[in-house]
Task: inverse folding
């Protein structure tokens, strides 16, 4: 393998529930997993029914153009089919962007403590990653604009960011886009955008008319509750979408996933419930941090990152109590743990376990 492949740091997924249950000799039902920013409500009933109906068509290939799902996106966002790329999760969208726009001799800009897939996708193409130091754990957009080099072809921005939960206001993003050369694609990763508070909301899709080098990436994995089915999408200029659709796998999303995604997209009631549960859970968890005298990073997502000292040791103590969270030493934050917001009783189990672990 080329040296740029050998130098890639492997992505560290959360421990599976079954594996921890086996290791700890606990029943699976007693394990609380708050490690992967999943939706604690599970799949919406509408999505589950649609997936079940699609299963009957399983012997046929899925629609490689994702026509029906794209039509639903067009109705929802007032965009055209030619502006869309559908991915096997938004990770796939990010990778397809890297495949289409990066190569050895080119570079991508991303922030310190930003989502791990940006360096992964960049390195896998043999391109150079330019990591820009974070400001208050978030994106320093001025420094990122200044870091763009002659060979830069992509800037990755996660808003909100994972794992830090930091958020950049829309006005600052717009000002950033004004400064970026038109031959640099700005990949705006909005995986958690549905969790934004009313006063944080902005409409990046409306900016596409003015910025043909903008790509808005979204997912059905978080607020829409379909992490296991793998559906994400990009909205961009038709020329950008066209190049990406040339390199993606022709049947990259299954018929079951597409059917569920179309149904999920229409289920506004489920989306509102997800955001509401998250808002309350965030208040519950951060109130406990405050009571324990712990520092945390205010988060706009469905997870929050808290400073616990020796995070590897605290993580082990949580695992022994059947609670799975995410240590983020790999993100250069060895003293912090990221915890996803769960149902009220799951949050309570986590809080109790953390109190034990730190006692
Ligand atoms: N972007 C960000 C910022 C994320 O945190 C995640 C999920 N960890 C993704 C993209 C990818 O999620 P998915 O592939 O499930 O859409």
Result:
């Amino acid at each position: 393998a080329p040296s740029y492949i050998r130098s890639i740091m492997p992505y560290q997924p959360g421990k599976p529930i079954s594996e921890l249950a086996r290791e700890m000799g606990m029943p699976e039902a007693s394990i609380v997993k708050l490690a992967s920013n999943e939706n604690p409500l599970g799949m919406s009933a509408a999505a589950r029914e649609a997936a079940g109906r699609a299963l009957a068509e399983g012997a046929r290939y899925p629609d490689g153009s994702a026509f029906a799902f794209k039509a639903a996106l067009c109705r929802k966002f007032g965009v055209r089919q030619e502006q869309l790329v559908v991915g096997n999760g938004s990770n796939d969208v990010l990778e397809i962007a890297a495949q289409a726009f990066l190569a050895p001799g080119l570079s991508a800009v991303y922030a310190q403590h930003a989502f791990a897939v940006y360096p992964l996708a960049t390195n896998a193409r043999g391109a150079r990653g330019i990591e820009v130091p974070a400001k208050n754990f978030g994106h320093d957009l001025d420094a990122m604009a200044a870091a763009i080099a002659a060979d830069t072809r992509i800037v990755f921005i996660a808003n909100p960011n994972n794992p830090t939960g930091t958020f950049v206001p829309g006005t600052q993003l717009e000002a950033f886009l004004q400064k970026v050369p038109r031959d640099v694609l700005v990949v705006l990763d909005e995986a958690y955008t549905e969790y934004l508070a009313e006063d944080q909301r902005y409409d990046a899709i409306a900016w596409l008319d003015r910025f043909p080098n903008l790509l808005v990436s979204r997912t059905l994995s978080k607020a829409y509750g379909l992490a296991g089915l793998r559906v994400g999408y990009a909205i961009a200029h038709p020329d950008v979408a066209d190049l990406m659709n040339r390199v993606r796998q022709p049947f990259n999303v299954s018929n079951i996933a597409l059917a569920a995604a179309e149904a999920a997209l229409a289920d506004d009631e489920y989306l509102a419930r997800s955001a509401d549960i998250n808002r309350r859970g965030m208040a519950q968890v951060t109130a406990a941090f405050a009571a324990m005298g712990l520092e945390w990073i205010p988060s706009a997502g469905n997870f929050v990152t808290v400073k616990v000292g020796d995070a590897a040791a605290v993580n082990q103590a949580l695992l022994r109590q059947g609670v799975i969270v995410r240590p983020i030493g790999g993100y250069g934050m060895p003293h912090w743990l990221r915890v996803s917001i769960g149902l009220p009783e799951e949050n309570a189990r986590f809080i109790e376990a953390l109190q034990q672990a730190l006692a």
